[in-house]
């Protein structure tokens, strides 16, 4: 009997142990699966410049407002068309039929309706809003590329400063070797250590600039600030300005720029209003005189708009020429800085230059390389502005 009881207890303990092991195994598997899932969800966002522009356009509230404005103008045109039919019907009635109606009530408004004032206003505004969609899209593209390029500048600055730090450390190593053999002074060692410290400080500062540039980009794209992004569009090129046609750009801008479209639309609408007011009010009344003056202003605004647009395009072209000249000069500066750094290293190795000369030459080279990349970015933005000068002006892009 005792043996049976002992055997039963052993079986119970064995089953309990097996169940516990299965439970622990399932729990461990669940934890592993959760950890794998967590690891998979935290992936950096591979972001090309085209993807960035697409995100910025999709998330821009200005585009939503323009679409709402177009719908409002469509409704305004429909209302204006219905009102015109009603006014024409009333004016077609005989005197007997209108006896008891006060059709002269608010008669100026009826005349404006009859002369297509509200239909024309809606049509011109819809045309302008459609053009504004193009302008806004270009403006978003320019702004997004500027934010994107700022991140690239920060990344390039880090790359150059890392090389500068490595060069400073190597130079310090050489100085210490010479100091140990008595061919370098303590002052040179201290100068080398200061160079390393300065290079490290500039690298740390560049990392901070990169983080801030990324935050600005994420904000512009309406992405969470903790999103990790990797920029994939690294290449920057330029087309010489000699291949650009300034006169063709001016003529295209005169056809497409919203400033001109808006001025011409305002003139068309004002002509209708002035026609109605001068027909209804006598020449000695304030309304008559105001309508005439408003028409004169509208007529003067059109040639002024053409002039302003041409001026803006010419300025955009000159900014591009200036940026290209700076880029060419910076290319020469980098070449000279590289040669100066090379020669100073050779002279120092042969005891014909001081360590400070080598350190200074390396610092100048790093500064020139960073400056060259910044100027290249500025050139690309200037080129983008000129290429789109038919749609957007320098002032609009700054906003």
Automatic annotation (TrEMBL):
Where is it localised?
Cell outer membrane
Q: Which domain of life is it from?
A: Bacteria
Q: Which InterPro entries match?
A: TolC-like (IPR051906)
Q: Name one GO cellular component term.
A: cell outer membrane
Keyword annotations for this protein, in alphabetical order, are: Cell outer membrane, Membrane, Signal, Transmembrane, Transmembrane beta strand
Q: Where is the signal peptide?
A: 1-25
Q: Where are the transmembrane segments?
A: none
Q: Does the keyword Ligase apply?
A: no
GO terms for molecular function, please? efflux transmembrane transporter activity; porin activity
* UniProt name for this protein: Outer membrane efflux protein
């Amino acid at each position: 009997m005792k043996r049976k009881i002992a055997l039963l207890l052993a079986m119970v303990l064995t089953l309990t142990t097996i169940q516990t092991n299965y439970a622990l195994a399932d729990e461990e598997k669940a934890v592993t699966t959760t950890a794998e899932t967590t690891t998979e969800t935290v992936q950096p966002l591979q972001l090309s410049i085209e993807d960035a522009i697409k995100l910025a356009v999709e998330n821009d509230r200005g585009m939503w407002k323009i679409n709402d404005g177009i719908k409002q103008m469509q409704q305004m045109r429909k209302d204006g068309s219905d009102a015109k039919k009603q006014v024409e019907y009333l004016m077609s009635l005989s005197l007997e039929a209108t006896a008891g109606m006060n059709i002269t009530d608010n008669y100026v408004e009826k005349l404006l309706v009859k002369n297509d004032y509200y239909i024309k206003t809606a049509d011109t505004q819809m045309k302008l809003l459609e053009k504004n969609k193009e302008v806004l899209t270009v403006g978003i593209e320019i702004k997004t590329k500027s934010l994107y390029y700022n991140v690239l500048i920060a990344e390039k600055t880090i790359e150059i400063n890392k090389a500068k730090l490595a060069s400073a450390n190597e130079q310090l190593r050489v100085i210490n070797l010479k100091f140990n053999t008595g061919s370098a002074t303590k002052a040179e060692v201290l100068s080398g250590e200061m160079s390393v410290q300065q290079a490290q400080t500039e690298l740390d500062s560049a990392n901070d600039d990169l983080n801030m540039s990324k935050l600005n980009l994420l904000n512009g794209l309406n992405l969470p600030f903790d999103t990790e992004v990797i920029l994939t569009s690294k290449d920057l090129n330029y087309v010489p300005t000699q291949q650009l046609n300034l006169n063709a750009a001016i003529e295209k801008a005169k056809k497409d720029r919203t400033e001109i479209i808006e001025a011409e639309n305002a003139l068309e609408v004002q002509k209708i209003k002035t026609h109605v007011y001068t027909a209804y009010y006598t020449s000695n009344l304030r309304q008559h005189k105001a309508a005439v003056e408003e028409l004169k202003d509208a007529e003067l605004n059109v040639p002024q708009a053409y002039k302003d647009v041409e001026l803006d395009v010419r300025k955009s072209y000159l900014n591009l020429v200036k940026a290209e000249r700076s880029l060419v000069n910076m290319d020469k500066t980098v070449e000279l800085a590289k040669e100066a750094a090379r020669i100073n290293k050779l002279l120092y190795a042969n005891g014909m230059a001081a360590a400070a000369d080598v350190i200074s030459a390396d610092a100048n080279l790093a500064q020139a390389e960073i400056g060259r990349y910044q100027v290249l970015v500025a050139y690309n933005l200037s080129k983008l502005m000129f290429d789109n000068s038919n749609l957007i002006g320098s002032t609009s892009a700054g906003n």
